[in-house]
Amino acid sequence: MALLWLAVCLTSSVSGLLQTEEDPDSPIKNLRMEPGEKRLTWDLHGNVSEIMCFINSKFITKAINNNRYCQFQVLSSCEVKNFTVSLTKGPPFLMGIQYPLQEGNPGASAQRLDCWVHDMDFLTCSWEVGREAPSDIQYRLYRQHLWTRREQECPHYERDNRGKHVRCHFNDVPRLEKQLQILVRGTSQRATIPCSDRTVELSEIEKLNPPNITGTCNKSYSMMEWKVSSHFNRRYEYELQIQKGSDPAYTEKLQENFFALYNPGNYMARLKVKGFFRNTWSEWSAPQHFVCDVGEDVQRRDWLLSALGVLATLLVLGLAVVLCGRYSVLQKLFPPIPHMKDPTIDNLQSSKLVAWEASRASREDCPVAEVQVLGET
To answer: Does residue 95 contact residue 75 with C-beta atoms inside 8 Å?
Structure first.
């Protein structure tokens, strides 16, 4: 035990010195991991001032609840790590375990697991087939809730040319927890395949799309605007690159989603964006070209087009007047032929018809004389 204390004292950091056999006088015994609770716990014997917990020789946290255990926020289910505990005061002490236990060939597990959020609603993960994977291997990806450990398999796989799953995406990012555990499990009839996992914070792995720049301008002033959409970020930083004519391009660092440019001339602009508290920038947007100083040649062309438009309008009006006048002259030279009257029909139509009432004698009755026909002559 004295030799162990001496070795720890000579080591500046907590290295891979793991106590494999418990000392009967050790203040900490039965060191173990409780995966469901994500904590490293032990049986405490005697009084100790403070206990520190390390993962792969890196200090993570101090023990809580009267030095009964160390609580972790994230605990890998696949990657084997060294968990160690040490005392801050008193005789040097170090004890450790490995978790999880190694099963299968690590070279057959999914390699280079990577995930990112894109186009607002999509979470995509990709990986590579392990170099030592058997030919019949197939991989499946799951998302796991950090505390309940509830899992859901990814529904949309992509395959490589050998038919192996190498990519998958979820399309319901707004419904997901902000922090997830991503696991890739391999299956084979020939061998046991270790899993691969990664804990992701969705806001940190989001790849923002570069915004499109819109704007209005004239010879003396230009106003550019843009809009960024995200489920996680509300504040952004921008880099706006501007190049006027053949001058060298320069960059403006902004936090607003607009920029005013005075005496702009003709220029090109492009933009990239990142979350205010993030480190990853988007790609540059497509260059937008703004023509704000039209120049004398363009002004002369526009004036000429306007003049031609006015002249064409006047010609149309003049032609209409000429045609109307010509029609009036023809009417005077060749008047229409008057309609010939039919004396019988016209007189009948123009006369007044009076209804005859036989029962009433009128004062205006004409005298009627009787005529006798004596015979034919």
So the answer is: no
pTM of the model: 0.65
What are phi and psi for residue 115, nearest 5 degrees? -135, 150
Contact 53, 87 (CB under 8 A): no
CA distance 178 to 199: 11
> Which of 46, 3, 41, 9 has the alpha carbon at shortest distance from 21?
3
DSSP string computed for 88-147: SSSS--EEEEEESPP-S-GGGS-EEEEEEEETTTEEEEEEE--TT--TT-EEEEEEE-TT
User: CA 26, 30, 35: angle at the middle one, nearest 5?
Assistant: 140
Strand, helix or coil at 58? strand
Angle at 181 between CA 176 and CA 183, to 5 degrees: 115
- Per-residue model confidence as pLDDT tens digits over 124-183: 999 999 999 999 999 999 999 888 889 999 999 999 999 999 999 999 998 888 999 999
Distances (CA, A) of 38 to 102, 117, 277: 18, 26, 28
Specify whether the CB–CB gap between 52 and 84 falls below 8 A. Answer: no
d(CA 129, CA 146): 26
Q: Which residues pair with 125 in a beta bridge?
A: 115, 168
Residues 6+ apart with CB under 8 A from 53: 40, 59, 60, 61, 62, 63, 70, 83, 84, 85
Q: Which of helix, strand or coil describes residue 206?
A: strand
Complete DSSP assignment for 247-289:
SPPEEEEESSSEEEEES--EEEEEEEEEETT-----PPPPPEE
